[in-house]
């Protein structure tokens, strides 16, 4: 089956895992999934010994689907994260220009409407607030206000095309801001599902490994398959880095 099919098969079980029981991945998820698949094949020859020590073989049977589901959850999280990063970079690149356009319009409007207290007050109301959402709304408000008073703006040599640019920029930046905020929420949801999928897969793996370590504690050749190769390599690297303390 495909990873997506595996994911759909057990997504209800994954989502049912409570936050307090969810484990944050302690190693790269792609490595973890591969270790699960390796473990599945490794323990096939030890079924009699493992079940004889009390292992429920269903833990082994669960590994392929749960591994596929975990891989799919990881892929979905990476996709959402990359989309968010793309949108955030686009906002970072484009928002300074949008803020500058708003400031240019406010500057021109204050001068053009200097003799009309009502219009000037409206401009100052629009100028209140400097958040991202304020800027998006301000550009549209300024476009509408400017188009309603083209004669006063023409009198100071204002380029009326900037009003259409403001409306278009407001629309584009609003969509981008919404996508950025939306992807941030999706990313959090996708990450939670990924963590739960990790937890979902880790449970049977722990059962199998613990049983394997118990049964083969005197058989290093078979015991090796029930150890995490990732953490074994990590421990070796740590030992090489840590200085020896002389007695």
Strand-helix topology:
Layout: H1 3-15, H2 29-42, H3 47-52, H4 58-112, H5 117-127, H6 132-147, H7 150-154, H8 161-215, H9 220-223, H10 229-241
Verbal overview:
The protein has one domain. Helix content is 78%, strand content 0%. The chain is built from ten helices and no strands. Helix 4 packs antiparallel against helix 8 and helix 6 runs antiparallel to helix 8. The mean pLDDT is 91.
Envelope shape: rod-shaped
Count of domain modules: 1
Radius of gyration of CA atoms, rounded to a whole number: 30 Å
Whole-Å distance between the termini? 57 Å
Q: In terms of per-residue confidence, which ranges show pLDDT below 50 for 5 or more consecutive residues?
A: none
- Structural class estimated from helices and strands: mainly alpha
Strand content: under 5%
Biggest sheet layout: none
What helical percentage do the residues reach?
over 70%
Count of separate DSSP helical elements: 10
Oligomer: single chain
The whole-number mean of residue pLDDT values reads 91
- The run of helices and strands is HHHHHHHHHH
User: What is the count of β-strands?
Assistant: 0
């Amino acid at each position: 089956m495909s990873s997506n099919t595996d994911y759909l098969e057990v997504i209800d079980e994954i989502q049912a895992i409570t936050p307090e029981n969810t484990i944050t991945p302690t190693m790269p998820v792609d490595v973890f999934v591969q270790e699960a698949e390796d473990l599945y094949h490794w323990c096939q020859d030890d079924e009699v010994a493992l079940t004889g020590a009390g292992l429920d073989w269903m833990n082994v049977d669960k590994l392929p689907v749960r591994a596929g589901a975990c891989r799919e959850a990881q892929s979905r999280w990476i996709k959402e994260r990359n989309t968010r990063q793309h949108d955030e970079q686009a906002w970072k690149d484009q928002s300074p220009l949008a803020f500058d356009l708003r400031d240019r319009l406010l500057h021109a409007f204050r001068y053009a409407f200097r003799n009309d207290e009502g219009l000037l007050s409206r401009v100052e109301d629009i100028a209140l607030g400097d958040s991202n959402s304020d800027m998006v709304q301000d550009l549209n408000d300024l476009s509408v206000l400017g188009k309603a008073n083209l004669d006063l703006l023409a009198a100071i040599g204002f380029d009326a095309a900037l009003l259409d640019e403001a409306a278009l920029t407001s629309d584009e930046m609003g969509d981008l801001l919404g996508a950025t905020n939306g992807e941030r929420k999706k990313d959090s949801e996708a990450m939670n599902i990924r963590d739960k999928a990790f937890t979902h897969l880790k449970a049977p793996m722990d059962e199998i490994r613990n049983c394997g370590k118990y049964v083969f504690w005197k058989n290093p050749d078979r015991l090796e398959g029930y150890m995490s190769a990732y953490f074994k390599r990590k421990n070796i690297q740590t030992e090489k880095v840590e200085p020896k303390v002389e007695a």
